[in-house]
Design a protein that fits this description.
Distance between the termini: 16 Å
CATH topology: Cytochrome C Oxidase, Chain A
Largest sheet: none
Oligomer: single chain
Structural class: mainly alpha
CATH architecture: Up-down Bundle
Strand content: under 5%
CATH class: Mainly Alpha
Order of helices and strands: HHHHHHHHHHHHH
Length: 389
């Protein structure tokens, strides 16, 4: 195994994200459309949602935090044995869940639930020691873990409805995280990208909108936890969609269109507004066009932001210019197409929902196959500039 793979936090976990994307979505599509057996006795939709949240997304969160926390705190990066053990814990959780038909549920739960606390144990010390402003993200991780625990409790009780609700709230919590992180990196990277091109355009800074947007996204999560799918949830989603759209207007999106490494961040953030708007339409009006709003948020916003952050961070932290290779720009477009097909595909294939699933999965798989092909060698090889990390 290449020694560089465990030289920095992003390396094993971004590779894990790519691997999970290439396994989990095709497997789910094959199961849904062609009856390919799963290794789990869980209800298939719960298995799919759980693994995308606590497999795919959790690995991305780990890779991001294990890379960002040293930058935020000015302390040494995470590497070596602790990183190996954390990655092994994530992988063991995936193996047990994917073969959960053959294991007692408490065994699967104990191992799988251990990952987020182990991640917190690594990142909490430097955050607390430095009294960093990002320390409240530990609370977000704690809340995400709580939804995971509720999921397993509901699964043990054979209560599929509450298990699904726990996953939905978990997604809401990740959307809060995406709103916080996106609100920092999108304008920062846009500004630096424009300056590098000699564009001195200033980005607007409406300070009032940041706490409003974060508060609204927290309200979305709270309402989904106590009274989901009602009119209140619909109106809060509508207001949150408007606020997210207004926030994005600050960031000069049209000026980024010649910079794929930047416009993909804007695209991901735009899906937040679109997904919340579709959720509002679905809950308040029952509009069929909005029925698959959840995938606007998961594929459109979260997966696109994950791909954008992974590509940018890998380039920067391996000593390469922060310019998206042409193939990666294609991957961004393929993932965008996967989101569009998954959310709106029934408008074209009205009688064939399995076709929507399969086409979207093929586009998704192509996008992440490109990512793995281009970036895996960067992730397991030393930095090109000879520096550690």
């Amino acid at each position: 195994m290449p020694s560089a793979l465990f030289a920095y936090g992003f390396r094993p976990f971004f590779l894990a994200v790519g691997a999970a994307a290439l396994v989990l979505v095709p497997w789910w599509a094959g199961s849904f459309a062609f009856g390919v057996p799963l290794g789990s006795a869980w209800p298939p939709t719960l298995w799919h949602a759980h693994e995308m949240l606590f497999g795919f997304i959790a690995a991305a969160i780990a890779g991001f935090l294990l890379t960002a926390v040293p930058s935020w705190t000015g302390q040494r990066g995470f590497a070596g044995r602790p990183l190996m053990l954390l990655a092994a814990l994530w992988l063991l959780g995936r193996v047990l869940v994917e073969s959960s038909a053959f294991w007692p549920l408490p065994v699967v739960a104990v191992v799988d639930l251990a990952f987020l606390p182990a991640l917190v144990a690594l990142v909490a010390q430097p955050l607390l020691r430095s009294q960093n402003r990002n320390t409240p993200l530990l609370v977000v991780l704690g809340l995400l873990w709580a939804t995971h625990a509720v999921f397993y409790w509901a699964l043990a009780a054979r209560d599929a409805a509450h298990a699904a609700q726990a996953l939905a709230v978990g997604i809401d919590i990740v959307l809060v995280l995406a709103t916080v992180v996106g609100g920092r990196i999108v304008p920062a990277f846009t500004s630096s990208g424009l300056k590098a091109r000699g564009d001195a355009t200033a980005l607007r800074a409406w300070r009032w909108i940041t706490p409003v947007v974060i508060g609204l996204m927290a309200a979305v999560a709270i309402v989904d936890a106590v009274r989901p799918d009602g009119a209140v949830a619909g109106w809060i989603a509508a207001v949150a969609a408007l606020a997210q759209a207004l926030r994005l207007l600050q960031w000069r999106t049209p000026r980024t269109l010649r910079m794929p490494i930047v416009w993909v961040l804007h695209l991901a953030y735009a899906w937040l507004a679109v997904g919340l708007g579709l959720k509002a339409l679905a809950l308040l009006d029952g509009a069929g066009v909005a029925a698959f709003w959840l995938h606007a948020l998961t594929i459109g916003a979260l997966a696109t932001m994950i791909l954008a952050v992974m590509t940018r961070a890998t380039l920067g932290h391996t000593g390469r210019p922060i310019v998206a290779p042409a193939a990666i720009a294609v991957a961004y477009l393929l993932l965008a197409a996967a989101a569009v097909v998954r959310v709106f595909g029934l408008l074209w294939w009205r009688q064939s929902y399995p076709a929507v699933i399969v086409v979207s999965a093929l586009l998704w798989t192509a996008a992440f196959a490109v990512f793995v092909a281009v970036f895996a060698p960067m992730l397991w090889s030393p930095r090109v500039d000879g520096r550690p990390g």
